[in-house]
Specification:
The protein has helices at 59-68, 88-98; strands spanning 10-13, 16-18, 23-28, 44-50, 73-74, 77-82. The chain contains two helices and six strands.
């Protein structure tokens, strides 16, 4: 149920909305498809969501998510990377959908 507008709020379910202020974006050069374009643009995207500090999720849901995602969290934050597209925009959309 992710928005098609990366950088905005992220609707997870009809009742759960993660505000854009709780999402951090990082960009780097991708090693994927794109030829020489890959060497000059930051098309790889990482979306970081600090699950442990989030106020968007009810406490019971946050606790359950922390337990289930324990092995994937880095200091309480979930990092989703996307680099399969040549376009940073498409990679941003892909990262939001995965989150």
């Amino acid at each position: 149920m992710a928005s098609d507008l990366p950088g905005g709020d992220l609707r997870v379910t009809p009742a759960v909305l993660i505000p854009a202020a709780e999402l951090r974006w990082r960009f780097s050069r991708s090693s994927g498809p794109g030829g020489q374009n890959v060497n000059t643009t930051d098309s790889r995207v990482e979306l970081v969501f600090d699950l442990a500090a989030s106020q968007a999720l009810p406490s019971a849901l946050r606790a359950r998510a922390l337990r289930r995602l324990e092995g994937r969290l880095v200091e309480g934050a979930l990092v989703v990377a996307a680099s399969e597209h040549r376009s940073q925009w498409q990679n941003r959309v892909a990262a939001q959908r995965r989150l």
